[in-house]
Write a structure and sequence with these properties.
Blueprint (H helix, E strand, L loop, with lengths): L3 H4 L2 E3 H8 L3 H9 L7 E4 L2 E5 H10 L8
Antiparallel strand pairs: 1-3, 2-3
Length: 68
Amino acid sequence: MNSPSTRDAYLRLPEVLAVVGLSRPTLYRRIRAGEFPCGYSLGGNCVAWKRSEVENWIENRPARVPPG
């Protein structure tokens, strides 16, 4: 298990995309739809996501249903 300080670290966009396996447009579509946590402004054009919120999203997203 990660320590609290590691889980509350911030991830920048490239790290979030790598961890969740989504493209940038898909990530932002899911944010607008309320299906992914919003990022936090760190000032200027800098946006980051809390690692704990991204990990929670990964752990709680529905399992994929096989087609057919």
